[in-house]
Design brief:
By secondary structure, the chain is of the alpha+beta class. Helices cover 37% and strands 21% of the residues. The strands form three sheets. A five-stranded mixed sheet has the order 5-6-1-7-8. Strands 9-12-10-11 form a four-stranded antiparallel sheet, with helices on one face. A three-stranded mixed sheet has the order 3-2-4.
């Protein structure tokens, strides 16, 4: 039986900023872009969340909810430096560390001898050390697999931890709301509501075949996750599955021709990033895709198989995507998907 810990820093970017400037503590703070440039919230502290502000929210909307909101620019170099120190701390306990981003990671402590091998005590000690060394709080989830550990880390936020022992897995998942399952977004959740599926107990009433009939490939994943089953290992080295670049415009692009003019700039930036990525990731390209967000905030994507980036294909994908809305555009993004062949790509492809 594995012992997995999921460490999740509490409002990481905002917490680092408050550490650097203690006068911000107690006041609503958001890190992200400026409202006049159509910036969005990268993260915010808990006083800001009390106003209903959350990550990915347009900053202009956040300001309306909280006029006295302090907005700070993203200082990625600082966050990376802090993250490296925290990640180094994890390595004192296990070499099986899988960072998911700057502020969260999985740790497999199954063979760890420290704290008498207790994953609960290890998580507690790690959180204490993060506070002592960085003056930042972290939450943790401890469980027999990655799926449950990630859910558990959100259970007692902020600055807490939650344990799901092997003996408690069955009872825990029975009561787990389906909206807690990664991959169950608004659309899937609405579909589940129509089927009177509210919890994993409801999902367990359906066979794998029935779930696949309703939810396609995701149905197979739902069958196992609803039972608390997740066999994915903690991967210490992972290959990038995609690479993309996007631009949010200060003024909407009103026509298809105006959108076409943006492809050149995006294409050059993508080509540059792709050339840098090739130094560490030599996977071949399998598809090109485009993302378009209209001024009503509806987003659409289009994709085509290809073995290398091609400006003409992106122009064709742009037209396909634009025809679906035929209205002013506030954001365009282009990207590539890589062909992956590692064993984990054949399993549940969840970002959890």
């Amino acid at each position: 039986m594995r012992k997995i810990i999921h460490i999740d820093m509490d409002c990481f970017y905002a917490a680092v900023e408050m550490r650097e400037n203690p006068r911000l503590k107690g006041f609503p703070v958001a890190v992200g872009g400026r409202p006049e440039t159509r910036g969005v919230v990268a993260t915010c502290n808990y006083p800001a969340r009390e106003y209903g502000i959350h990550s990915a929210m347009p900053m202009a909307q956040a300001i309306k909810k909280c006029p006295n909101l302090t907005i700070l620019p993203v200082n990625m170099n600082l966050y990376r430096q802090v993250s490296k120190k925290i990640q180094a701390l994890f390595k004192h306990y296990t070499h099986l560390v899988q960072p998911l981003s700057l502020d969260e990671a999985y740790l497999d402590v199954s063979d760890c001898q420290q704290c008498n091998g207790s994953a609960t005590l290890i998580a507690k000690k790690i959180r204490q050390q993060i506070w002592q060394e960085q003056q930042l709080s972290a939450s943790a989830g401890i469980a027999p697999n990655k799926f449950l550990a990630k859910i558990a880390s959100d259970w007692n936020k902020p600055n807490g931890q939650f344990v799901i022992t092997p003996q408690r897995v069955d009872d825990f998942v029975l009561q787990l709301p389906v909206k807690k399952i990664f991959g169950v977004g608004k659309v899937t959740n609405a579909k589940m509501q129509k089927l009177s599926i509210n919890s994993c107990a409801d999902l367990q009433k359906l066979s794998q075949i029935q779930l696949q009939e309703h939810f396609g490939k995701f149905g197979k994943q739902l069958y196992y996750l609803a039972r608390g089953i997740d066999e994915r290992e903690v991967i210490t080295q992972s290959l990038r599955k995609s690479l993309s670049i996007e631009d949010t415009f200060i003024k909407d692009r009103l026509t298809l021709n105006a959108c076409r003019a943006e492809i050149d700039k995006l294409y050059k930036n993508l080509a540059y990033r792709l050339s840098k990525n090739l130094k560490t990731n030599s996977l071949p390209v399998k598809a090109l895709y485009i993302k378009v967000k209209f001024n009503n905030f509806k987003t659409t994507t289009a994709q085509k198989q290809a073995h290398k980036i091609d400006k003409q294909i992106y122009q064709e994908l742009l037209e396909t995507a634009w025809q679906r809305g035929k209205r002013p555009v506030r954001l365009i993004g282009i990207g590539v998907q890589f062909l992956t062949k590692n064993k984990n790509s054949a399993q549940m492809e969840l970002g959890i």
